Amino acid sequence: MPRERHEKHERYGIHGRLRTASIATLAALWLLFAAFYALNAFEGAENRLYDRMHQRVRPVDSRVVIIAVDDASIARLGQWPWPRDVMGGVVDVLTEGGAAVVGIDVLFDTPSRVPGEDERLAGSLVRAGNVVLSAYGLFRARTADGPMRADELVAPVDALRGGEPPIRLAHVNGLTEGDGVMRRALLELYYGETRYRSLAAEMYKLYKGAEPNIPTDGAGRYYISFTGRAGWYHPLSFADVHQGRVPPGYFKDRLVLIGPYAQGLARDWQFTAIDGDRPTYGVEIHANMLQQLLEGNFLTDLPRWIGFAVFSIFTLSAAALFLRRKPRLGLVLLLVLLLAYGGATYLIARGGYVTRVIYAPAFCVLAYFASLAWHYAQTRADEARVRSTFGKYMAPNVLRKILDEGEDGLKLGGQRRTVTVLFVDIRGFTPLSESVPPEEIVQILNEYLNLVASCIHRHGGTLDKFIGDAAMAFWGAPYDVPDHTLAAVRAALAMREESAALERKLTLKYGRGVRFGIGVNTGDAIIGNIGASFRMDYTAIGDTVNTAARLESNAAPGQILISRAAADNLPDKSVELNFLGGLKVKGKAEEVPVYEVIGA
Question: Which of 9, 369, 372, 486 is the most exposed place for a label (fewest CB within 10 A)?
Answer without folding.
Answer: 9
